[in-house]
Specification:
This protein is of the alpha/beta class. Among the domains are: 406-626, Rossmann fold; 650-765, Immunoglobulin-like (Sandwich), CATH 2.60.40. The chain is 32% helix and 17% strand. Strand 15 (554-559), helix 22 and strand 16 form a beta-alpha-beta unit. Helix 9 (159-174) runs parallel beside helix 10 (205-220) and helix 10 runs parallel beside helix 11 (255-271). The longest helix has 17 residues, at 255-271. It is globular. It binds beta-D-glucopyranose. Beta-D-glucopyranose binds next to loops.
């Protein structure tokens, strides 16, 4: 008997000490995450670990491309993520074998649940993490709420709205089994030729920072409630001021500029708890960001203490070899990026093989792999994926596109439309006009959804034409369709609009860029769609001029992600609106503004330069920038940062500072009165700028340091208060340390960044 017991005990001990068969602690939700991670990690083979670090594109995307690509494209086209000789069934098999940690571009809940079911067949049943570019709602996938893009949201200066949209987006994402958005894009956009301005919060580091923080918080919420998703601050860094304005081209920026302008939103995102980060396509001062250990390790990890996950951008690790030429082959690219600090690879079939080889060859220590895998597993546990790998198909549509979310999309769109010019024509009275012509490429098109959107069901989108008809009824409106394609407009249709304009009492032209992803190569704006100028494409200018020649009042509306300039319109038309990419409710929001049901309140989050030659045109430039102004043409922008009109008038007065002198570390309170002296209720975006007059390094002529959305009834006056805290007075010394230097600081408050719009007072910082 005794011998039998002994054998039994030894057998139990043997089972317990063997990783594969001992109690699976990692599956127990009551065990702390750290312990679950360690338990799981020790059970994993090297292949499984490296597989966790690899992300693939969804199989439906691959299948669709298999059908639509030509033989030639199939061999060469990596942009569509099709890997010759590696069809969908192989990806499915890898998933079942636990060799893929994450997918992106999965567009339906059915596919997400299906891929998850494959992962659940794998040895360790590690769930898949699904990532997607939910930039303004989960708009890349059908049947989700589509909000205005980031540039429109930023124009509302409404950080609470940024939080709300991110929260709602996270809920819609979880409702279709998505766990990770590649947003917020917290790049400071300083070149309107760059096609991605629309997915940023504009040119001002402070505004970008504030919007970014709230977006991060909104997306992530409380991860353990199953309604938060991972936020990804991107792209780190400098790609928003690329040479020539083209996406991914080099960024040649001094360390001072990088630290003063481009770093703050990322640092704030890290401090706000962003759990993931994506490096940018470009090289920064000669070193591609995906191999840049100064950026990813020295600054991000060591200086800022970022412990989250670094995901590479699309093919950018491969580009270390085949574009930048800093690696002799792809395997070396993988080595360089892992050693620089990248944790996960955005899609590709060679990763698993080469990275395992690099470990076996002793070039990458397995501890370095474990570091990345720990992060990935930790996030999967924190998201609750082990407990709830699937989303409920029946419940999904109760959350997505629900009434509350649509109402938010409408409110956000209303608050994002910038009124650039109004000589009194607006608001329109529906009764006054018997015949209204509507025309232009963006008048009746889903392009209002903006970049990073899939086409949505027509019943879920209100085009501008529909929005106008919702107010005026059908009878009054004549629509002259110019098609959707700015590059291929029909001169006969332009002439038809010209004739129709003469017969109408009022004309509305909806012009701008074309951003629809489904027609990738025909776009004029959006990702990878950079321009060598910031003017209108095709016959659009001609259309506007011919319509205006009718002598009938003409309203111009821009739908665009980048700041577009049309000086002639500013000089000749009575009313101009910039509606950015307003999302699914854009048509209603614009019509409500045109007809005075809503008082516009948005202000530009980017400067609009008159011409390409003026670029770089930013409000927070250095004092010497226009010491010698341009000759022949003006040095001023067409519209400055922070500018936007309303249907009422706001009067600023009684600016008071609590102190004339402070010591470093002390604060100054600012108070002023803002009066709505017009006859319509409204919201004014009050802006506070600071200038550091004397400093050991040059400082911008002004910098936004605070703002407030103040709602004012007609005739009402409100006291607006700000506090200038020490952090708002800081600059970087010669060692890039934050310091407050003694001297005069000018406080400027007003409705835009334009000097003439600002009331000013100074205080001194003394030693
Ligand atoms: C973009 C990223 C995006 C990724 C996945 C890349 O081309 O630069 O911002 O997250 O694609 O869609």
């Amino acid at each position: 008997m005794k011998i039998k017991y002994f054998i039994l005990i030894v057998s139990i001990m043997a089972i317990c000490s063997c990783g594969g068969t001992s109690k699976e602690i990692y599956k127990d939700p009551n065990v702390p995450v750290g312990k679950r991670v360690e338990d799981l990690l020790k059970r994993m083979t090297l292949e499984e670990k490296v597989g966790q670090m690899n992300q693939f594109v969804g199989v439906e995307h691959i299948k669709a491309n298999e059908k639509s690509l030509t033989e030639d494209q199939l061999k060469t086209n990596t942009a569509l993520a099709f890997y010759p000789g590696f069809p969908a069934p192989v990806i499915e098999k890898w998933t079942e074998e636990g060799l893929i940690g994450s997918f992106l571009h999965v567009l339906t809940i059915e596919e997400a649940n299906y891929l998850q079911s494959l992962a659940m067949k794998s040895r360790l049943q590690i769930p898949i993490l699904f990532g997607i570019d939910a930039i303004h709602g989960n708009a890349n996938a059908p049947d989700n709420t589509v909000y205005p893009t980031n540039i429109g949201l930023a124009s509302s200066f409404d950080t609470a709205m940024a939080y709300k949209i991110a929260r709602q987006t996270a809920k819609e994402m979880r409702a279709m089994n998505m766990h990770w958005t590649f947003n917020p894009n917290v790049e400071v956009a300083r070149d309107p030729r760059w096609g991605r301005v629309g997915e940023t919060y504009g040119e001002d580091p402070y505004l970008v920072t504030m919007m970014g923080i709230q977006s991060v918080k909104g997306y992530q919420g409380d991860l353990s409630n199953y309604d938060g998703v991972l936020a990804c601050i991107k792209h780190f860094v400098g790609g928003s001021q690329p040479v020539n304005g083209t996406n991914g081209s080099p960024a040649d920026l001094s360390e001072r500029t990088v630290r003063e302008v481009f770093f703050p939103p990322f640092k704030a995102g890290v401090d706000a708890g962003a759990l993931t980060l994506m490096p940018s396509h470009n090289e920064l001062n000669g070193m591609p960001c995906h191999a840049n250990s100064w950026l990813l390790t020295a600054v991000l990890e060591k200086e800022w203490g970022f412990e989250g996950l670094v995901i590479s951008d699309w093919m950018d690790i491969e580009h270390l070899y085949d574009v930048h030429g800093i690696a002799p082959d792809i395997k070396e690219s993988f080595y360089q990026s892992i050693m620089a600090g990248v944790d996960m690879h955005m899609h590709g079939i060679h990763w698993n093989e080469y990275v395992c080889e690099l470990v076996r060859e002793g070039r990458i220590p397995e501890s370095r792999i474990d570091k990345s895998v720990r992060k990935i597993l930790t996030l999967k546990f924190r998201l609750g994926l082990f407990e709830k790998p699937y989303a409920d198909i029946k419940e999904s549509m109760q959350i997505r596109l629900c009434k509350e979310h649509r109402a938010t999309a409408l409110e956000a769109a209303r608050n994002s439309v910038v009124l650039l010019k109004n000589n009194g024509l607006l608001p329109l009275s529906a009764d006054k006009y018997k015949r209204i012509m509507v025309t232009g490429i963006n008048a009746d098109d889903m392009n209002i959804l903006g970049d990073w959107s899939a086409p949505q069901k027509p019943e879920n989108v209100t085009t501008i034409l529909e929005g106008i008809r919702n107010i005026t009824g059908d009878r009054k409106i004549t629509f002259v369709d110019q098609g959707w394609d700015p590059r291929n407009m029909d001169p006969a249709k332009v002439q038809e609009a010209e004739r129709e304009a003469r017969r109408s009492d009022l004309n509305i032209v909806v012009a701008g860029e074309y951003m629809v992803r489904a027609r990738w190569t025909e776009r004029t704006g959006g990702e990878d769609t950079d321009r060598s100028d910031n003017q209108l494409v095709g016959l659009q200018e001609e259309l506007i001029k011919r319509v205006a020649a009718s002598g009938k009042p003409t309203v111009l509306i821009f739908i665009t992600g980048r700041p577009l300039a049309f000086e002639w319109a500013e000089e000749n038309l009575p009313a101009i609106l910039n509606a950015w990419e307003p999302g699914m409710c854009g048509g209603d929001a614009i019509a409500e503004i045109l007809f005075g049901k809503v008082n516009p309140s948005a202000k530009l989050a980017v400067t609009i330069p008159r011409s390409t030659g003026q670029i770089q045109m930013i409000y927070n430039h250095k004092p010497s920038q226009y010491f010698h102004p341009y000759v022949v043409k003006p040095s001023t922008p067409l519209y400055p940062f922070g500018f936007g009109l309303s249907y009422t008038k706001y009067v600023y007065s009684d600016l008071q500072l609590s102190e004339q002198e402070i010591k470093p570390g002390q604060s100054v309170d600012v108070e002023l009165n803002v009066q709505n002296s017009g006859s319509m209720d409204g919201v004014e975006i009050v802006q506070l700028y600071i200038r550091d007059k004397i400093s050991s390094f040059t400082r911008p002529v002004k910098e936004l340091k605070d703002f407030a959305r103040v709602s004012l009834k007609a005739g009402e006056t409100k006291k607006v208060k700000f506090t200038i805290t020490p952090d708002k007075l800081m600059m970087l010394d010669k060692d890039y340390k934050s310091v407050i230097e003694p001297g005069e600081f000018v406080v400027m408050v007003g409705p835009s960044s334009k000097d003439e719009d600002l009331i000013k007072k100074s205080f001194n910082v003394i030693k």
